[in-house]
Every structure is written in C-alpha cells, then in structure tokens.
Task: inverse folding
C-alpha cells in the first residue's frame, strides 16, 4: 500500500471519528452533558 492511500484512509477515519463523537454528544440529553451543581 502506498503512503498516499494510507494517509487518506487514516485521515478519513479520523474525520469520521471526530464527526461521530460530536454527533453523539449533540444527541445526548442536556442533563447528562451539562450537569447542574446542587
């Protein structure tokens, strides 16, 4: 496998991982993300 294909694969995996992490946090209930202090 040449380096440009490897770099593209790693880059796409990293981008999708970041995107899915933000999407997951966006769909969490607000009470879980922003815990209110007592």
Result:
């Amino acid at each position: 496998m040449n380096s440009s294909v490897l770099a593209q694969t790693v880059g796409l995996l990293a981008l999708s991982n970041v995107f899915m992490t933000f999407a997951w946090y966006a769909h969490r209930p607000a009470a879980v993300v922003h815990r209110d202090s007592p």
